[in-house]
Amino acid sequence: MNKNLVVRARKAIPQGISRKLWVKSGGRCQYDGCNIPLWKDSLMQKDLNKSYISHIVAASEDGPRGDAILSEQLETSFDNLLLLCDECHRRIDKREVVTHTRKSLTAMKIKQERNIELLTGLTPDKKSQIVSFTAKIGTFEPTINFNDCVEAILPAYYPVSDNIIQLGTSNLAIKDNKQSYWDIHSNQLEDMVKQNIKPLITQDKKTHFSIFALAPQPLLIKLGTLFSELSISEIYQLHREPKQSWKWNNEEDALDVRLYEPQKILSNAALVISLSDNVMDERIFETLGNDVSIWKITVENPNRNVLQSRQTLNNFKNQVRNAYSKIKLHYSIDHPIHIFPVMPNSCAIETGRVWMEKADLPLILYDQNSNNNGFSKAIEIKNQ
Question: InterPro entries, per this entry (predicted)?
């Protein structure tokens, strides 16, 4: 300590400033990544004030981030104060002082107070239920992180709670080249939507859902039919390039998605969705025979990273709806459409969502599986 410094009494934080700090912070630790509530004992859940009011610029010149002039000027300034828990208070004042600069601590304070203000001002139309659905893809068991979902929906929507509604059965031993795999997952998915989703829609028809899913495409189409366009839902896509994220790139230009119709109408109807890769007609003939008319939805250059913008997904959805309507003109109401999907996951969900149970033809969904030497029948979706 500098022996020439004049020791002065520390000023008390005015009650109004202290109250403002509690309100603006939501009564939570403002250290980035902590956020624990400071008004209760986390173990006993009893009311307890366990907060510390800490200084960004130290109250004394020789303190952490102290300054000969600013320490006294900012000692009781709201903009210089952080509400912290005991551990984080000690962290910024007694440990790792070099990493906790005025700039970094001020950024923490601004970020946390902004988030609290946004959340407390949240209107019903901004709230969303986060829903995830996963199922084993080959030997890969996918997972979906709640924080990644929250990052994707902000700032357009905010999570209703810190709990994710999880659909699906994990760690199923049966492989996806077996019919029992599709039967178990399909039935389980129906049950879980009935238990976890339907009551929310019944309670409030304006309930908004943010849907994140990683699963084989027939199951994703099935998921879409269970939500349908009657529910208010936003579908998200996991983007792997340039950085893995669920967040839509609003600056990406929308792609032109096209529907190609067959020249002749034959006994069977197939809808090929070729976005992630090219699907040759010969593969459809190998599965259904030659007596089949093929409608195809595709883009100029199919590839696994084709879907980057929400508008491209909307363009795709419109073409699927268009295909269902056009195919229905040529077949009886109980005649199935054979769906061959090679597309991004969000497109698969929307393929199911735009299907109308009471108006459209039934669907037979196929899965591309190398263990079955190509496409094989997976799930049937019946109409009324």
Answer: HNH_nuc, SAVED
Q: What is the dihedral of CA 141, 147, 149, 152, to 10 degrees?
A: -130
* Size (the chain), residues: 384
Dihedrals phi, psi of 232, to nearest 5 degrees: -90, 105
- 3-state SS class at 121: coil
Residue 37 placed within a domain: yes
At 214-265, the pLDDT tens digits run 999 999 999 999 998 778 999 999 998 778 999 998 777 899 999 999 999 9
Report percent pLDDT > 90 for the chain: 69
Mean pLDDT taken over the chain: 90
Look up tokens 């005649």; give the residue. Answer: 335
Q: Tell me, yes or no, whether 275 and 350 share the same domain.
A: yes
Query: Do residues 100 and 170 share a domain?
Result: no
Q: Which domain holds residue 319?
A: 258-381
Is residue 129 in a domain?
yes
Structure tokens at 375: 């496409």
Taking CA atoms, 94 is separated from 90, 215, 240, in Å, by: 5, 48, 40
